[in-house]
From TrEMBL:
GO terms for molecular function: DNA binding. InterPro entries: Cro/C1-type_HTH (IPR001387), HigA2-like_HTH (IPR039554), Lambda_DNA-bd_dom_sf (IPR010982). Keywords: DNA-binding. This is XRE-type DNA-binding protein. Residues 35-63 form the HTH cro/C1-type domain. The lineage of its organism: Bacteria, Pseudomonadati, Pseudomonadota, Betaproteobacteria, Burkholderiales. It comes from Variovorax paradoxus. It comes from the Bacteria.
Length: 111
């Protein structure tokens, strides 16, 4: 018979529970687009409707390893998020800000 995870977790030592919590947070901080969509409880069909594209386009986009930042930004925005480009160096982290959004109506960069 299957055991509940909560029961197994309760039997873990405190340091093992802490390690498990850290791993969970790491896994939630990094995930492919399809997992992010699923975690946000969105179907491909729902996302396709928001982006005004066909459902297969969403599946294709989620498998891509290379895409325009504007494409990724619109995908993230359709899921209710905001895309930030961050560079990490040994001495610190820098948010890259020169990727201004393009206003679809006027064609003018918004700041």
């Amino acid at each position: 018979m299957a055991k509940k995870f909560a029961d197994l977790r309760a039997k873990m030592k405190p340091d093992a529970q802490a390690h498990s919590n850290t791993k969970v947070l790491e896994m939630l901080a990094e995930m492919p687009l399809f997992e992010l969509r699923q975690a946000r409880s969105l179907s491909r069909k729902m996302l396709a409707e928001v982006l005004h594209v066909q459902q297969p386009s969403i599946a294709k986009l989620e498998r891509r390893t290379d895409m325009y930042l504007s494409t990724l930004r619109s995908h993230i925005k359709a899921m209710g998020g905001e895309l930030e480009v961050v560079a990490r160096f040994p001495g610190g982290t820098v948010k890259i800000t020169n990727f201004a959004e393009i206003d679809d109506v006027e064609g003018i960069a918004r700041i």
